[in-house]
User: Fold these one by one.
Assistant:
Number 1:
Amino acid sequence: MVAQRDSRGYALSEYAALCVHGARSGIDGHPCENRAIMTRMLAAVGDPREFCDPAHAPREVRLLHARASESLAATTGQESAALDQEIGATLRLLDGALLASVFGSAPSSAVYRHLWRLLAQGSPAASANDLAGITFALPVVIVVAIEGSGSGHATLPAVLSDPAALEALLREHGALNGSQTFALANALVAVETIDLPRLPDLHASHASSPSSLRPVLADLLPPAPIRATGKLETVHLRFIVGHAIAAAGANLLRDTRVGPWGTSFAQSLTRQLKPQGVSLLALPRAPQSLVAAVQQGRAAQREVSAQLFVGNALRKFRASVGEPTAVISAHRAPDVATGGELRLSLSSPFAARAAEGFRCALLPGDRVGDVLAMLVDLLRDCRIDDVRVIEAVHADRDPVTGAPLLFKAENLADATDASPQQVC
């Protein structure tokens, strides 16, 4: 049996060391000796997700999907641009329910990504002679655990006692392209609060100054408490929403990197959130549009969870039986929103019962190869030399045990439809 962790349960640990080196940093990197094999492998792994039959979507939704497909297949940039202009204008007029339906019933990841790009480009703006109100969000990945013996639990209310201190740090470092006219809400909110069904309402919020918008944002943005249970870290995703006033056309959110403000911002946020007896690590991302923040926040939560899993599992293996073998495979997963995920197992023939597994859910706009590359890069940076990737798509459950199916190196022969490749 392979002990399991997943990118939603997040019972993981050992992030601190990985935070220094980073799964994609390349510090002390060990490049794969056969990059050609790795490139072919990334392209060959199957997509386990199940996308909707467009025939079941409402007519106006099907039309948008069809227009997106036409744009992707267009033979000229002019033709594609005309279609994209039509699609973008339509997306901006939809209410939250219909907007969610458009993306929830997308017939492919390519169509989903194309619609997402057009929605992200279509943030509301005032006319050329007006000031524009911009609603933005900072994704924050938060890792918590109970200190000491790890017994009991605690709940963080997710309410900021001093949002002005965080605003001051962003202003000091020009985090919003130098803008000084903005305010942050005093709550850490869940992804559902700013996702597609709520997007039109949040974009419709406006005021003559950011500070006068605080009461409006408070009604729209209820805090999402964070629960810490046990000594193993759990990973949570929250957002700090803000509103800025800028000259129309000004791009306050062009810098997608966390600048010099990041460390001080994280420390201030930790002080405002941390209850007694709880360890807390806050990892803020740069301010972004609501659409972009949701996507990057989910991906960041998943990547941090993978880093924690690998760090924790490696500590166990290296303290007992030595280096593990990693196996990555694609699986159907009915309990995942998209119906598919990648699974990573770490195992050793010297300790059959010590195997560990991680379930990495695929988001609808993901390229499977990108998520696979994230996992392979992480394993490489952690100096795991034996990494094997199984091509094709596999079932959710082991037919014998009924448990989620995860492959170990010694039973790869069971993957009869697979072509396992050693990539590093």
Note: Residues 205 and 216 are 7 Å apart (CA to CA).
Number 2:
Amino acid sequence: MVSDKFQITCQPIKGLKRGGGIRFGEMERDSLLAHGAAYLLHDRLHTCSDYHIAAVCSICGSILTPSVIKPEKRVARAVKGLPPVRAPKVFRHACDTNKGMETVAMPYVFKYLAAELAAMSIKMTLQLSI
């Protein structure tokens, strides 16, 4: 039962015995910042840790989950010899439109924080720029 649990923040578990990684603490982070290793810092703390792609509405700036409408009418191209699959079309209920949807890479903890703040009636919006 305990082995079936998972991290709610999607971050790796601690300890090599449990399939986790080596601890990367504040001192290690500070040393990489001091040496100017920005790519390595971004790779270790974001890409390999809790990388998440979220849909963001560029009209209202909301990170809420989009709904899928009419997936049977949209067909995506075949990839590497696989048969074509139906691509879902997203729809935002808050804006009543499917225009302005952008995908943004962010840590999963940020999306979790937005959900926690929404539970306390605090709306978080993002401003997207190109």
Note: The chain has two domains: 1-49, 52-130.
Number 3:
Amino acid sequence: MDEYLILGLFGQNLEMAFRLALPLAGMAAAIGLVASLAQTATSVHEPNLAFVPKLIGVAAVACAFGPGLFGQLVRLTVEILGDFTRFIL
């Protein structure tokens, strides 16, 4: 097994992990920033005021982008498992 093959596979998997996590983490960060600014402006420091909007926003992004992201993950998995013999030999 060639080390460049392993590094390429690792790179593909790492890129896929970032593609899957970026929309969800980006939405959580954006909502957290807005919630923290609102809490600072109003002097109300209740943790639930940041958690509940993040939960709703991340769920909405997961519902909106989930099928496309899951399709990319399935394609990568089929590609890897479809030619699995090149990783063994």
Note: The chain has one domain: 3-88.
Number 4:
Amino acid sequence: MSFKSTIAATAVAAVTLTGAAFAEQSIVVEDAYIRSSTPTSHSAAAFMVLKNEGEEDDRLIGVQSETAERVELHTHQEDANGVMKMLEVAEGFPLPAGQSHALRRGGDHVMFMGLTQPLEQGKLVPLTLVFENSGEIAIDVPVDLEREPHRMDHDMKMEH
């Protein structure tokens, strides 16, 4: 085998293996973005839609990033006085087979505390999503400081 054909065969094998790895991936991440209230904030949040296209239930159990000193899974919950409070969700977010889980403002989200650098509009922030069954999935999430919250439809009910 010549040097050129060896390189070509290696490239085809790499593409084939990469394609196979992606084909087995059952978690799909859509509409991901990260934002802070101001460019100089010390905290930020990431939002996205997680889809489990596999046949097995899964769970997002953590997120890793060098963008902040601490990264936690959070949600909002109404207390006895009707005040919304943000809480860490140590057990993670369930992701049943064939279903989606939205991480949205005012609900479940990824919280970044102690930002190690300012967030700049359009910059990509590397994150590693950690799932109970699917393992680690590395993604690059764009900073979108201008994104407006989604408006709720009149028929949509908000659960607290």
Note: The chain has a mean pLDDT of 83.
